[in-house]
Amino acid sequence: MKLCYWVLFLLLTLSPALAELPLASAGAAGGESFADRVLVARASLLEGRERARAAMNGLLGLQPTTTLEQAVLARALGEGAVHFSGQDASLSASLAQQAERELEFLTPWLADYPALMKVHGFEEPAWLRGQSDTVAHALLAWVAVDKLDPRPDRRKIIQQFAEGLVLLQRKSTHLYPYGAHVSFYPSPELEPYAPTPDGQLVPGVSWILQNSPQVEALVAAGTHLSSPALIQSAEVEGLGMLAHVVASGKLAYGYLPRPQDGGSSRGALVLIENLVSLEKATGRPVYAVLAGMAAGWARPGSNPAEQAAAQLADSLLKGLPAERYRPVEDLQPPFSYQVMDAENGKAVIKAFDVMDVTYPGGFPGKLVTVGREQMFWMRFDVDREDEYYFYLVCLKTTQAGLVSVAMRIDGDKIFTVQLGGATDSSFVDLAFVAGPRRLRSGPHSFGIRFSGLLMKQPAILDAVIVQPVVERRLVKLKDGEHLLLLKNLKPEATATVVTECDPSLARVVASVDGTGQSFQPTTSVDRKGKKRLNLPAGGVVALQFRR
Q1: In terms of C-beta density within 10 A (0-12 exposed, 13-18 middle, 19 or more buried), how is residue 453 classed?
Q2: Terminus of the chain with fewer CB atoms < 10 Å: N or C?
Q3: Virtual torsion, Cα 522, 244, 280, 292, nearest 10 deg
Q4: How crowded is residue 425: how many other Cβ atoms within 10 Å of its Cβ?
Q5: b/e map 272-292, b = 16+ CB within 10 Å
Q6: Intra-chain end-to-end CA distance of the chain, in Å
Q7: Using CA atoms, how far apart are residues 221 and 227, in angstroms rounded to an integer?
Q8: Per the omega criterion (within 30 degrees of 0), is the bond before 300 cis?
Q9: pLDDT band at 453 (very low <50, low <70, confident <90, very high)
Q10: Cβ proximity of 124 and 130 under 8 Å
């Protein structure tokens, strides 16, 4: 019977595909948030003294309602304390004291240091309680305050929380979250992503750009504590997730874990802050390139928070090498991932159920449930012959080995994707399916069918992600030069055909592997006479040239 399903699937792939529905790209839920108000106050430090003083005094009266808001506020207060340290000692002291009071809730967490806990097969530091974004903002606040009033006990707190961030890191370049410092622990402050078959709302393993200053925090802590290991950990995320966002050409709101467009200048600011901190700490040109390209997204918007983000970004870049890499336009569509929503698939034999959901950030979406005797297929196109990875956004349950789906690409080998692996509760994951797999340019197809042993519990799926192994983005700079950014997601060195320029004549302005080590790219010619450029493992190469 299973063979019959796949034969029917192969016949159907010859039919025209359904048109894909457009991906939702609305911004996060409207209204001025707590973080927006704090951001506007941070930008006021770039303005006149009285305006800055009024803004900082205004922060002293804010009432945060979540741990993340407390940490965000503490960071701004710490920045204000440093800003006024040479101008108004009394205000500086008040701001520093309030920053530490906002973070008092965190010190009891260190009672769990150095214990580790198992979360969905990963070991995580128990004392971070899954809140890496909160801890990152707190580290920036503590470092600012400790610069003004150094204390051994505070330095110990900084060291232990920074160590926790490092332990959260997923170092693989081709698996989500691409080197980011992200927890798989279901923090109570996470927004729900999907319902389980019994109706329970569960979160996804999410990385929200505008809430993620982990790189900047580790750089700040590493510099303050003279700890190269902390900066090295920050580099892995900088050359992983952050480089991926820049090279994709898509300003993401975040990974929910589904990659979700709809980012804003606020997210671009965090991206720039992270990358500029690495540029200053390491002096590597690659971070200047990435920060400059990210700065193209930091445009003043129609509301005060967007304007403040753009103002802060401009201030950060002023006088730095990153300024010269700010693009004026993309010369061709960036070559990056495709998101193919499962609800747009064509059912075989028996239709699947579709449910409406709201993703974190307020984005509307749909999920599908695929059960016994259910299968669907979808056609997709790729613009370039190259190698690709395939991922599946799906609900992982505690029923290890009992719920799974089988996926087949172009009627070839069948890949089984296990939808178990959750430890205490279900969660949404971005699961690796297959790759690298070479695809020719043009139309392709994949099919998915239920293959679990637990016939009463369906598979809940969101989307299939098709990701080129080598992402590329070609932009024009202000001086008329062209810049080609290449990001290799493969954990090994690879060679890619370069058609945008002659790679042997272009100037290499940056070339590092996924850990930040310098790499000398070489060129070769394939059997078709096309020039190839050798790329470092998990790394980034930037070529500059003039046409």
Answers
A1: exposed
A2: N
A3: 90
A4: 14
A5: bbbbbbbbebbebbbbbbbbb
A6: 58
A7: 8
A8: no
A9: confident
A10: yes
CA distance 321 to 477: 13
Element at 273 (helix H, strand E): helix 265-282
Output the six-digit token pair for 40: 């506007």
**Mean pLDDT calculated for residue range 91-118:** 97
pLDDT bracket for residue 511 (50, 70, 90): very high
Per-residue pLDDT, 455: 63
pLDDT one-digit tens code per residue, 199-208? 889 999 999 9
pLDDT attached to residue 454? 64
CB-CB contact of 87 with 148 (8 Å): no
Q: Is the pLDDT of residue 6 over 70?
A: no
Largest distance between two CA atoms of the chain: 79
Of 214, 213, 210, 205, whose CA–CA distance to 258 is shortest?
205
Spell out the alpha helix ranges (H) of 430-539: none
Distance CA 376, CA 155 (A): 56
Write down the pLDDT at residue 190: 85
- The predicted model scores a pTM of 0.93
CA-CA distance, 186 to 182, in Å (whole number)?
A: 11
Q: Please say whether the dihedral angle defined by the alpha carbons of residues 494, 498, 504 and 507, taken in this order, is positive or negative.
A: negative
Residue 380 pLDDT exceeds 80 = yes
Please tell me whether residue 468 adopts helix, strand or coil conformation.
Answer: strand
In whole angstroms, how far apart are CA 221 and each of 72, 233, 265, 500, 542? 17, 11, 26, 40, 29
